[in-house]
Amino acid sequence: MLRRDLIAASAVLPVVVATTASAEDKPAPGAALSIAGVGLPIISGGRIRNYVFISLRLHLGGSATPESMRPKEAFFRDALVRAAHRTPFVVPDDWTVIDAAAVSASLMRAAVPIAGRGTVTRVEIVSQAPRTRSTTRRG
């Protein structure tokens, strides 16, 4: 009886393995990569006035998975900080928040050379925390 069970199990095993492998190849719906603690400068009048630390979520598309994108996280951070110094994401008259739409657009543009077209479908700013909470402008 044991022999018959082994033969039956060996016939079913390839089907179970193939089903599991095909399910792992596709990213889970709503797959995302979270990036926390990116410090972006608030530059006004050619001077750094404040820093805002953001946490963001990259919504993935195509065949991208969080595991395949995690090694590229440093490249996303670098692209974001470089863009923030080049063209600051400043909200007029407020040095405690950043322009979320500008950050999202910049990171979407940077995602193509970093990870490929279609791998990042949307960028969501989860939180913003300014280093200094004062919005008063001095001189």
Task: Offer a quick outline of the entry.
With 139 residues, this protein is an alpha+beta fold.
What's the Cα radius of gyration? Answer: 23 Å
Helix content: 40-55%
Helix-strand sequence? HEEHHEEHE
Query: Into which percentage range does the β-strand content fall?
Result: 25-35%
| Sheet with the most strands, sense and barrel status | 3 strands, antiparallel
* Number of helices, where a helix is a run of at least 4 consecutive DSSP H or I residues: 4
Shape: elongated
Strand order of the largest sheet: 1-2-5
Poorly predicted parts = 13-24
Terminal Cα separation, in Å? 90 Å
By DSSP, the count of extended strands is: 5
Notes on the protein architecture:
By secondary structure, this protein is of the alpha+beta class. 42% of the residues lie in helices and 32% in strands. It contains 4 helices and 5 strands, in the order H-E-E-H-H-E-E-H-E. The strands form 2 sheets. Strands 1-2-5 form a 3-stranded antiparallel β-sheet. Strands 3-4 form a two-stranded antiparallel sheet. It starts with a helix and ends in a 9-residue tail after the last strand. Residues 13-24 have low confidence and may be disordered.
List keywords for this structure.
139 residues, alpha+beta, 3-stranded antiparallel sheet
Outline the fold blueprint.
Elements: H1 2-25, E1 32-44, E2 47-60, H2 66-69, H3 73-86, E3 90-91, E4 94-98, H4 100-115, E5 120-130
Antiparallel strand pairs: 1-2, 2-5, 3-4
